[in-house]
Amino acid sequence: MSRPDRGLREQVYILEVLRGLGVTFRHFFVNLWRHGLRLLGLRAEPGAVTIQYPDEPAVLGRRARTRHRLLRRVDGSPRCTACLLCETICPAKCIHITAEESPDAAVEKRARSFDIDIGMCVFCGHCVEACPVDAIHMDADQVELASYTRSGMIWDMKSLMKENP
Hints:
Radius of gyration: 26 Å
């Protein structure tokens, strides 16, 4: 297979570099002009779509995948039946469930422990889709999931069942 011959324009990269710098500077000065007028009070509409995060919270869509939460039954126990489907389908392998026999005759087994390592989670939502009993949701509208320690990112069943941790 023969390679196509490169002309002078392809061999001299400085022309392409200058074209790229031209685009960059054009965007820089156009946005500087827009924001400068807005800051001076001469223009009312916003220049760029920027969210001032601590002051203005981000507006999330209805289907945003945020913090995990476990749902409860009517008696207050977790709805999880420890079928291990969410643990199996998780691409990050961040869900760990330990099953035990349930004292309730209507439920075969339940989860003794349900841990999610939020630091490893990719927030794909596969666990929510795989759950046959609709026990796990990702609709808490909480996106601030920071922790000072690695162990603080591992959430157990008690913290997953809280409405507002």
